[in-house]
Design a protein that fits this description.
- The complex is a heterodimer.
- Chain A has no helices and twelve strands.
- In chain A, β10 and β11 form a beta hairpin.
- The mean pLDDT of chain A is 95.
- Chain A is mostly beta strands.
- Chain A starts with a strand and ends with a strand.
- In chain A, strands 2, 5, 6, 10, 11 and 12 form a six-stranded mixed sheet that branches. A four-stranded antiparallel sheet of chain A has the order 3-9-8-7, with no helix packed on it.
- By secondary structure, chain B is mainly beta.
- Chain B has one domain: Immunoglobulin-like (Sandwich), CATH 2.60.40.
- Chain B contains one helix and eleven strands, in the order βββββββββαββ.
- In chain B, strands 2, 4, 5, 6, 9, 10 and 11 form a seven-stranded mixed sheet that branches. A four-stranded antiparallel sheet of chain B has the order 1-3-8-7, with no helix packed on it.
- The chains are: A mainly beta, B mainly beta.
- At the A-B interface, β6, β10 and β11 of A face β4, β5, β9 and α1 of B.
């Protein structure tokens, strides 16, 4: 069975600075997808970024980028120029390519942004 | 609708009571998922519907939990004889299909916070 581990329960960053959130996963599959979701106090999960395992190029979305290390089974999220609105819970998630679409989530990292 | 709607937003019930949680997905989304998020944890998969049928209910913790989607749109998660351990946020998500979710993503609702006292 696949597992997702987020080893940082809480992180803090100064506004305008850069922060990296860690995620590792365990799988025997070679083709899969990885996601980072943001969950603000409203509880709604919002997709931040996604990565396809067969693509070696790291995904980027504006201020958000990932460092995907397939051999190490590592998928970290880098947030540049942090903004107050980035404060939230961040969840790393895994999905098998051929699955029925259910996601496997880590326990999350609470990100605080200091003004 | 424009998003996934979940009602009620919050529900407090007494131990042993029966509760129903409702999810109204985006129109046209055939795939619907239920997750349970306990305090301090990430969401855990409960059940997946493709159309009207439950294609995968392997995440349901026991037979007190049951879900339906009779017309392929609105889904109801039903919990019998609630226990304090059932207290959690129950999230619903929908997508066009599992394959199209890879391109277009999943849309999550804001969840129902269930508290069993």
């Amino acid at each position: 069975a696949q597992t997702v581990t987020q080893s940082q329960p809480e992180m803090s960053v100064q506004e305008a600075e850069t922060v990296t959130l860690s995620c590792t996963y365990d799988t025997s599959e070679s083709d899969y997808y990885l996601f980072w979701y943001k969950q603000p106090p409203s509880r709604q999960m919002i997709l931040v970024i996604r990565q396809e395992a067969y693509k070696q190029q790291n995904a980027t979305e504006n201020r958000f980028s990932v460092n995907f290390q397939k051999a190490a089974k590592s998928f970290s999220l880098k947030i540049s120029d942090s903004q107050l609105g980035d404060a939230a819970m961040y969840f790393c998630a895994y999905r098998s390519k051929g699955s029925q679409g259910n996601l496997i989530f880590g326990k999350g990292t609470k990100l605080s942004v200091k003004p | 609708g424009a998003g996934v709607s979940q009602t009620p937003s919050n529900k407090v019930t007494e131990k042993g009571k029966y509760v129903e949680l409702r999810c109204d997905p985006i129109s046209g989304h055939t795939a619907l998922y239920w997750y349970r998020q306990s305090l301090g944890q990430g969401p855990e998969f409960l059940i997946y519907f493709q159309g009207t049928g439950a294609a995968d209910d392997s995440g349901l913790p026991n037979d007190r939990f049951f879900a339906v989607r009779p017309e392929g749109s609105v889904s109801t998660l039903k919990i019998q004889r609630t226990e304090r351990g059932d207290s959690a946020v129950y999230l619903c998500a929908s997508s066009l299909s599992p394959v199209q979710a890879l391109s277009y993503g999943y849309t999550f609702g804001s969840g129902t916070r269930l508290t069993v006292v």
